[in-house]
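Before drawing any conclusions, I looked closely at one protein's amino acid sequence and its backbone structure tokens, quoted below without any editing.
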Amino acid sequence: MQETILILDFGSQYTQLIARRLRELNVYCEITPWNKPRELTENIKGVIFSGSPFSVRDENSPVPKVEMYKGKVPLLAVCFGAQFLANHFGGEVLPSKIREYGRAHLNFVDSASVLMKGVRDNSQVWMSHGDTIKKIPSNFEVICGTKDVEYAGFKIQGEDTFGIQFHPEVYHSEDGSKLLENFIVNVCGCSQNWTPASFIEVTIADLKQKIGSDKVILGLSGGVDSSVAATLLHKAIGENLHCIFVDNGLLRKNEYESVLASYQGLGLNVKGVNAKQKFYDALAGESDPEKKRKAIGRVFIEVFDEESHLVTDAKWLGQGTIYPDVIESVSATGGPSATIKSHHNVGGLPDFMKLQVIEPLRLLFKDEVRRVGLALGIPDTIIGRHPFPGPGLGIRILGDITEEKVRILQEVDSIFIEGLKKWNLYNDVWQAGAILLPVQTVGVMGDERTYEKAVALRAVSSTDGMTADWCHLPYEFLAAISNEIINNVKGINRVTYDISSKPPATIEWE
């Protein structure tokens, strides 16, 4: 069994970041809601309590079953977790006189502590709490402090239980990764063997055992997740994997043909389905964004279901679900982060499709999916692709959708994306695209007055899409692209650039 660090989530915005830091250290970890604790098993080498938006003084604040873990395996309690331990075992937690948010510096570090080995005096850390520990129980010993926080870190005597009131998982904590490495390697004894190569080996073996000689159907999108999932399944079951790539008429210019060719180059058993007209018919005259999304989703299910019935005796549906989708869905169904959406990939199978779901990537974060894809030999043209929305250009054409509008936007988008590549800007951008606006503007071309459409270009930088900043692309690039679009795309006479960040704006316009 894979050695594992268990992270108990109390609803902190940073919980997934703890997991990402541990994975970067080649240690496997899993997140579970505090109110759905997992029993200890032999492979669980340690436990981390996350932070929380709650105060331990709140009447309805989380109260985990700490005795399940404390003293039985190493335990690291972060921020709220540390305050909970201190309060629960007889210490005192009170509101801070000074708001402890943002950067602070450790001005006392017990270098003899195994947790603090290599953590420098005056090292910058990130605080994010309104309460502070004013008194610790008699069997707690201090291992670090700051100018304003006497008990920034502690250890319980006689056991490998630690608490820290700062967040080592955020980049602002300069020695945070070192502290986490001390805990998971030097305290928990993890061997750091969680690598793309080991994941591939174990996953392929598991898929072979689970699926056997059954047939699997998987819908390819051209994106990273479905491509990596398909390649893993292909290596496990070969021709018993049947991939379906649907052209909904809302893909980028020539994307259907180029992606289909790249999949066949990988040796995948892929069937391309041209269903453009079905989608155009379903979208005719519809301008409401949510209704457009639902129409696209409905027709995709209909087409996919129709094609899947042509594969006789299929038992499984493959999906590119990744770990953040799983975490968000668990949280939305009773975990601490109740406001997080339920993901369409998780439990989203229509009742009439009597297939079992297989999700080979459900343990991976997005960056891990990319690393696994590279290790599998998937071309960088697929692995390095920008995210592209499921409804495609359907939500980048504001208002109703026609084939002519799709053609116009495909041309504009192609010039923009290819321009980013030619100017060596593509890899500096997290996501980019063009939006066709539902307005016409006056222009002059030659000696003639024109009254044609306007487009907006959008390029953002981000790590996960939850927040994003607009990219400060060079003026020379924007000028060249604007000129190329207006000169080459019939029907466009004005180009704008979106300089809105998320929040308050979203990345897509619909």
